[in-house]
Amino acid sequence: MCVPARFLAAVLMYCSLCAGLLLPAAHAQDTTVSVGVYNNPPKIMLDADGQPSGIFGELLQAIAEEENWQLIAVPCQWLACLDMLDSGDIDLMPDMAWSERRGEHYAFHQTPALRSWSQLYQSADQNIHSLLDLDGKRIAVLSGSIQQQYLQELASSFALRVEWVLVDSFVEGFDAVNAGVADVVVANQLFGDQESSQRNMEATPLVFQPARLFFVSHPDSAINQQRLGRIDHYLDQWIADKASPYHRILGRWAGGLEPQTVIPGWLLFALAVLLVMVVAVLLTSLWLRRMVALRTRKLRASEERLNTILDSVEAFIFIKDKDLRYQYANQKVCDLFGLKRKELIGRSDEDFFDAATCVKLRLNDLRVLEQGERVVDEEINRLADNTLLHTFLSVKIPLHNPDGSIYALCGISTDITEHRQIQEQLHHLAFYDPLTELPNRRLLLDRMTRALANQARTGYAGALLMIDLDNFKDINDTRSHEAGDVLLQQVAARLGTHLRATDTLARIGGDEFVLMLEDLSCDHDEAFQQVGSLANSVLQRMDKAFRIHGQDHVCSASIGIAMFADAVNHEDLLKAADMALFAAKSTGRNTARFFNTEMQAAVNQRSALEAALREALEAGRKQLQLFVQPQVDSRGKVIGKEALLRWQHPEKGAISPAEFIPVAESTGLIIPLGEWVINEACRILSAWQQLPDHRELPLAVNISPRQFRHPGFVEHLLGCLEAWQVDPGLMELEVTESLLIDDLDQTIERMCLLRDKSMRLSLDDFGTGYASLGYLKRLPLFQLKIDQSFVCDLLTDPNDAAIVQAIIALGNSLDLQVIAEGVETEEQRQRLLQLGCRYFQGYLFGRPASVEH
């Protein structure tokens, strides 16, 4: 292949420019400020002149003009920027979200330059609408970011199976979704909204982490500390002035500009450059064949230089003709097949790969050659003389004649075998015990959940056997921990014999194993006998001595058994099996015990509470009573009250709602209990009509999700209001975020119906559960209630203060009233006022009390 001189000149010029970037910078004067710039439009990026651009870039340029600073933009990836900041190679780093850890490591100014939040974006073929939809998905997230830390903790708390695809930039994350390496990508909403519109992607309704963004410097640099102070000076002035450069810049970048051309991630960028180069080589070679013989030597020299470039690339580059025979291959391809380039030309995949691989490669190649598609695929290939599998990320494009016909394909493949192996290893470590190779607790819980659901659907019984080795500590103390590990491995192997395909054997820690049996007999007695027989078989197998380091060791076991029918979820099932195991060990070890009624004291107590609650419902106000707590505005004026249910048992005394509300929820008593509360609230509102100072006060009533979804809820509510002749506008309904998880459309329809009846709806405990900006926009709410857990540490925890401020800002943007719960001190009230909150509830203004008081 040969290349035109102009192309070579361009390549050499590009190399010269790259070399120039590596030259060390001259010593800066006091007015010279070096700024780390990573590509994150529209917040920060480089413009065509190599200067900082975007919101942060233009804002810093405006300040630099005022301060006579000379800015030097230093392009870098996110992690590289942080390393340069740590080493002092750059003075300032823009677009840094504050966190407690970063606050200890870097110097921040005081006034945030920008406020943002994080959001998830998906490709068009995904259908993610809630947090639970992320189960089993691949999420691309910026490596080392607070977004990564937050999402990993969130996924762990919800037991979501998520595959993390760590990237060095937001662009690389979007590239990963486009390439099929990830399903969703995390980005700030400013960058994500712009980038997704260019890539035919869409934003999910999942938002999180309201953040304050700053410029930062190294904490030991006094001059940079002064510069941060000057940045604060201009931010304080400009934010208050709507005609300032700050608002002009923000309006220009955050107000719906034309989409900016975004440079792709490093991998696809490299592949695209290489494709262009290969196409250029082909077109150039056709043209050069027509050149006179006098230029042959010069053209051959150009071809050799270009081959040197292609051969130095860490990718497999090749060209196949319409017969699928190789017409070009770079050195990486030759090394893979162990041939010289001239020996490879004219040969096909059948000469190098096994039959199955050839079939898959042929299908992809024909899509390019016959249909003209650009194919991006992850190909798993096996060489004909090797059992090892190689995984390649391949991009293949058609090559066209001047008349538009396709004459060949060009492919660029990157070997990602090691990357895939690391992912598989991480998955194995996450779900399997490294010592015994058995499923660990995490995988067991997942399978238990599915098994309980299958039993409820099919009726086939199941059981959980918790197996604990007797006196296992002795072998660790008398022999060694290594001998103990060998014993655990042999126990796992012995317990694993004779298992059915549906059985699961797991090690959940120490010397505890769990055997889960599914698809037992539908007949309870027969299933009971099957489990008992299997437990005895396990005990007999454990009686045989184990051979450890040339010596026999006898180790018995105790077994606790719980049938699936003994529990409604995996937590209760494990507790039941654990209680049965305790009973087995208490009766002399080397035995098995079933969970029985004597172990159900807690269950019986719960049943007694349920019965007492039913009696309380029949007794009505003899045991149940609604207390009220005032809600006030910033001047201390009472604007409404909240009804709080109290239960005074004639024998047990006061019973906390934290005890009886969960029982009511699980047993269905929440429906009649909620109806009693609504009727009592209407009675109170009717009585207030006789009191001039209470006549206009609304009363807030908490409504559980189960009660809200009940078919008769709206009819009963409207009937009570009519019976007591109460204005519906005085009834305020408080619902929690958990109401939004299931059947959102029906929930919104019902809420709109209540709003049309003049009733007001409030979202209680906001910020503690399921949050979605997309859903909040659709809900007919009038109020958000800040949960008291954020108010409690408001004065000492900057994170809580930031969350409260973000909730207040969100409420204001949606034109919703925001009220803070749990306000107990004047200092909390003053801080909330500073943050923009104007309505309060808590002990500072009044404790819950009976209506008469």
TrEMBL record:
<feature type="signal peptide">
    <location>
        <begin position="1"/>
        <end position="28"/>
    </location>
</feature>
<keyword id="KW-0812">Transmembrane</keyword>
<dbReference type="InterPro" id="IPR000160">
    <property type="entry name" value="GGDEF_dom"/>
</dbReference>
<feature type="domain" description="PAS">
    <location>
        <begin position="302"/>
        <end position="348"/>
    </location>
</feature>
<keyword id="KW-1133">Transmembrane helix</keyword>
<feature type="domain" description="EAL">
    <location>
        <begin position="606"/>
        <end position="853"/>
    </location>
</feature>
<keyword id="KW-0732">Signal</keyword>
<dbReference type="Pfam" id="PF00497">
    <property type="entry name" value="SBP_bac_3"/>
</dbReference>
<dbReference type="InterPro" id="IPR035965">
    <property type="entry name" value="PAS-like_dom_sf"/>
</dbReference>
<dbReference type="InterPro" id="IPR001638">
    <property type="entry name" value="Solute-binding_3/MltF_N"/>
</dbReference>
<dbReference type="InterPro" id="IPR052155">
    <property type="entry name" value="Biofilm_reg_signaling"/>
</dbReference>
<keyword id="KW-0472">Membrane</keyword>
<keyword id="KW-0418">Kinase</keyword>
<dbReference type="InterPro" id="IPR029787">
    <property type="entry name" value="Nucleotide_cyclase"/>
</dbReference>
<dbReference type="GO" id="GO:0016301">
    <property type="term" value="F:kinase activity"/>
</dbReference>
<dbReference type="InterPro" id="IPR000014">
    <property type="entry name" value="PAS"/>
</dbReference>
<dbReference type="Pfam" id="PF08448">
    <property type="entry name" value="PAS_4"/>
</dbReference>
<dbReference type="Pfam" id="PF00990">
    <property type="entry name" value="GGDEF"/>
</dbReference>
<dbReference type="Pfam" id="PF00563">
    <property type="entry name" value="EAL"/>
</dbReference>
<dbReference type="InterPro" id="IPR001633">
    <property type="entry name" value="EAL_dom"/>
</dbReference>
<feature type="domain" description="GGDEF">
    <location>
        <begin position="460"/>
        <end position="597"/>
    </location>
</feature>
<dbReference type="InterPro" id="IPR035919">
    <property type="entry name" value="EAL_sf"/>
</dbReference>
<dbReference type="InterPro" id="IPR000700">
    <property type="entry name" value="PAS-assoc_C"/>
</dbReference>
<dbReference type="InterPro" id="IPR043128">
    <property type="entry name" value="Rev_trsase/Diguanyl_cyclase"/>
</dbReference>
<dbReference type="InterPro" id="IPR013656">
    <property type="entry name" value="PAS_4"/>
</dbReference>
<keyword id="KW-0808">Transferase</keyword>
<feature type="transmembrane region" description="Helical">
    <location>
        <begin position="266"/>
        <end position="288"/>
    </location>
</feature>
<protein>
    <submittedName>
        <fullName>Periplasmic sensor diguanylate cyclase/phosphodiesterase</fullName>
    </submittedName>
</protein>
<feature type="domain" description="PAC">
    <location>
        <begin position="374"/>
        <end position="428"/>
    </location>
</feature>
